[in-house]
């Protein structure tokens, strides 16, 4: 099956050697998003909830560019520099996702690009 590269200006431009997303058939692999504001490429201002919301807005923009939505996410990976923020992830996720929720992993990491406190990547299945 051919790969389709997904790119949108509604999400931060790739800051390395990767694509925002790759679609193969009805499956879309969304690259990790940190809380960059697409227009400025700077970290969003505000607290941890603001960072989580920006990450999810970025993922939603890439999912939309692929013809999908966060409602079609089947797997979400969350990377946090401080796992005490995990309850905030659950709280903010409830604003963006409804049941049935995607499968998910949360991983504590030492650092993330640009000093971000959170990063998420996802897999979605279109029409799923």
Automatic annotation (TrEMBL):
Highest taxon above the source species: Bacteria
Annotated signal sequence range: none
Pfam families given in the database record: Ribonuc_L-PSP (PF01042)
Membership in a protein family: Belongs to the RutC family.
GO molecular function per UniProt: deaminase activity
CDD domains linked to this entry: YjgF_YER057c_UK114_family
PROSITE patterns for this protein: UPF0076
InterPro entries reported for this sequence: RidA, RidA_CS, RutC-like_sf, YjgF/YER057c/UK114
GO cellular component terms, semicolon-separated: cytosol
Name this protein carries in UniProt: Reactive intermediate/imine deaminase
Originating organism: Candidatus Thiodictyon syntrophicum
NCBIfam families noted in UniProt: Rid family detoxifying hydrolase
């Amino acid at each position: 099956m051919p790969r389709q590269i997904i790119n949108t200006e509604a999400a931060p431009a790739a800051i390395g050697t990767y694509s925002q997303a790759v679609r193969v058939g009805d499956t879309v692999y969304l690259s990790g998003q940190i809380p960059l504001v697409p227009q400025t490429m700077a970290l969003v201002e505000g607290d941890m909830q603001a960072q989580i919301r920006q990450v999810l807005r970025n993922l939603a923009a890439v999912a939309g560019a692929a013809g999908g939505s966060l409602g079609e996410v089947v797997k979400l990976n969350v990377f946090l520099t401080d796992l005490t923020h995990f309850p905030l992830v659950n709280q903010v996720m409830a604003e963006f996702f409804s049941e049935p929720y995607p499968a998910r992993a949360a991983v504590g990491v030492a650092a993330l690009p640009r000093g971000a406190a959170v990063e998420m990547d996802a897999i979605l299945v279109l029409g799923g």
